[in-house]
Amino acid sequence: MELSAIRLLVEADMQAVDAHIIRHLRSDVVLINQLGGYIVNSGGKRLRPLLALLSAKACDYAGEGHIGLAAIVELIHTATLLHDDVVDDSKLRRNRETANAIWGNEAAVLVGDFLYTRAFQMMVDLGSMRIMDILAQATNTIAEGEVLQLLNCNDPDTTEASYMEVIHSKTAKLFEAATRIGAVLAGRSEAEERALAAYGMHAGTAFQLVDDVLDYRASSEQMGKNVGDDLAEGKPTLPLIHALRTGNAAQRDVIRAAIEQGGLDRLDEVLAAIESTGAIAYTESIARREAQLAVSHLEVLPDTPYKDALVSLTRVAVERDS
């Protein structure tokens, strides 16, 4: 099943999510409307709200609560993007200028705060302490992951284990929350809730691993951001960690210097080291393993088109080129 077919399954729900977001983004402060609308309407895969909708449907949920939950998940994600782009000094995302490049860092940070707090207002409206607990824990873990990634920047001694801890916290945790709340909303058993959560964690990990591969393989047009951004920011992602671990002395020196100093002055040499050490293939193999683990946790669900869509999303995550 292709991504377009997956989206078609919940097309009406996704339209309702978009409308829900627009209603709750309204503010008397004009800049919030401008900047918030710009980032929310700037495209993107919308995988996290899609996962929230599909997991609820796969658990046979028949109400409307999943619309609000998917909107909350997307607002949390959007807030993290606003803050990320400030921290990373990014100027391009999804082939468009970042909000901070247009309105400045101060506005981007403050509107990101608005989105976070609006998401929590929406959680209160749901009236479920269980769901609020899951999303609050996820939001806090994401913040921890961001700080850990900041600590790892420009550190060539970052281990694979530390890197995996970052992406579990920073990226995969919101995937996990999105799929877990679908089971909670549907009132499924604890075993099914844990299974959906594990699916989201592994699927989110696979997604981020492929993202890190694409930073060294895809074009700027495919990625929607500048190729080599991770290296320019001194981020030791798994392709670099593996090349540093397995390369020869000269390659290790080049990669260490690139991580420590940031920038793209020796990008060609770094790319050559990544290629010759098989770092891309290694990272892709870990991503495929994570995708397979994600699928294995779906065995507790009945066979439905929504379960098939969740299975297909793991394939989409690892086979994509953007």
Automatic annotation (TrEMBL):
Keywords assigned by UniProt, alphabetized: Magnesium, Metal-binding, Transferase
Gene Ontology molecular function terms on file: all-trans-octaprenyl-diphosphate synthase activity; metal ion binding
Entry cofactors: Mg(2+)
Recorded catalytic activity of this chain's protein: 5 isopentenyl diphosphate + (2E,6E)-farnesyl diphosphate = all-trans-octaprenyl diphosphate + 5 diphosphate
EC number: 2.5.1.90
Keyword Phosphoprotein assigned: no
SUPFAM superfamilies attached to this UniProt entry: Terpenoid synthases (SSF48576)
One example of a Gene Ontology biological process annotation: isoprenoid biosynthetic process
Protein family (similarity comment): Belongs to the FPP/GGPP synthase family.
Described function: Supplies octaprenyl diphosphate, the precursor for the side chain of the isoprenoid quinones ubiquinone and menaquinone.
Protein name per Swiss-Prot or TrEMBL: Octaprenyl diphosphate synthase
Organism of origin: Acidihalobacter prosperus
Species lineage: Bacteria, Pseudomonadati, Pseudomonadota, Gammaproteobacteria, Chromatiales
